Amino acid sequence: MQNTSSSMLTPPQLRAARALLGIDQRTLAARAGVSLPTIQRMEASEGYVRGVVETLTKVVAALERDGIELIREHRVSAGGGLGVRLRDPAEPEPRTTRSRRETVEA
């Protein structure tokens, strides 16, 4: 993990991490040693996930054990695995390259 504090975890990150692992809220709760309602509250919160630091730490640790790398905004991933990142809609779109199909047809 890239020194991501659990206080910087957002509900969309938490849901995306579960989706990448293919697990439901109940499974994450069991792996983290927290209650299902705790995970439900975390995912339903606004802004950053808030809660007892120990609980947040357990959830992040469970995700990391299963291979999730939480990446803070404007940081580079330290891992070499596949990933998905949400781009800030206010930032300009990245320069695109021609698709393979366009290249073949040209």
Q: What features would you describe in this structure?
A:
It is a single chain. The protein is mainly alpha-helical and 106 residues long. Helix 2 crosses helix 3 and helix 2 packs across helix 4. Helix content is 44%, strand content 0%. The protein is globular and about 50 Å long. It contains 5 helices and no strands. The N terminus is likely disordered.
Fraction of helical residues: 40-55%
The fraction of residues in strands falls at under 5%
How far apart are the first and last residues' alpha carbons, in Å?
A: 43 Å
Number of helices: 5
* DSSP summary, beta strand count: 0
Shape: globular
Q: What key attributes describe this structure?
A:
106 residues, mainly alpha, 5 helices, 44% helix
Compact overview of the structure:
The protein contains five helices and no strands. By secondary structure, it is mostly helical.
Secondary-structure blueprint of this entry?
Elements: H1 11-21, H2 25-32, H3 36-44, H4 53-65, H5 100-105
Helix pairs in contact: 2-3, 2-4
